[in-house]
Amino acid sequence: FQLSHKKIWTLISSRSAGFEPVRGHFSNTFEFEVQPLNSGQIEQFVTRWFKAAFIKQERGTSDQARKSAQVLLERLGWEENASRRIQGLTGSPLLFALLCLVVLQGGEIPRRRVGFYEECLRVLLQRWGEKQKMESPLLDLEIAHALLQDVAWRLHEAGQRDTLTRSQFVLWAE
């Protein structure tokens, strides 16, 4: 695309490890790194995220959204949640949005990162099932956890942290 449309600027968003293998296919690129959010940006992100979530899901008033956002912001400051691993979630917009979603659905910040990912899996499977109009998720949480745990172990053993293909996942999942 870039070669045949030289006058069109293209924005590519990727983790560094994911972009490295294809870097040679793109000429005249500039690399930027997303910086972690500062405390003011964290407060703004959480406040706006909860306001949008409350409006979209018709959960209540903007005042209730503001209170929920404030609860999360206070909990992020608690000593038990101040670990670098949990605080590190605020450095990635995707992970931070997932943290907001987990708190919105369950009300608590997981103490450890593994707990965070388990909650993400639970919430996302539940929400996906709701969008598909299913009474229960397509994949049971425990089965999904066992499957992903096995895939994660295989990736770790193979030294392939960021290079799982769809066909490889399907093969390992069977």
Give the tags.
globular; mainly alpha; 174 residues; 8 helices
Task: Report what the structure shows.
This protein is an all-alpha fold. Helix content is 59%, strand content 0%. The chain is built from eight helices and no strands. The chain has helices spanning 16-19, 39-57, 62-77, 84-87, 93-106, 113-131, 141-158, 166-173. Helix 2 runs antiparallel to helix 3 (62-77) and helix 5 packs across helix 6. The protein starts with 15 loop residues before the first helix and ends with a helix. The model has no long low-confidence stretch (mean pLDDT 77).
| Low-confidence blocks of residues | none
| Cα Rg | 19 Å
| Amount of helix | 55-70%
Q: Please indicate the percent range of residues in DSSP E strands (runs of 2 or more).
A: under 5%
Shape: globular
User: What structural class is derived from the secondary structure elements?
Assistant: mainly alpha
**Distance, first to last CA:** 36 Å
**Helix/strand order:** HHHHHHHH
Please work out how many helical segments DSSP would assign: 8
Mean pLDDT: 77
Strand tally, please?
A: 0
User: Major β-sheet, in short?
Assistant: none
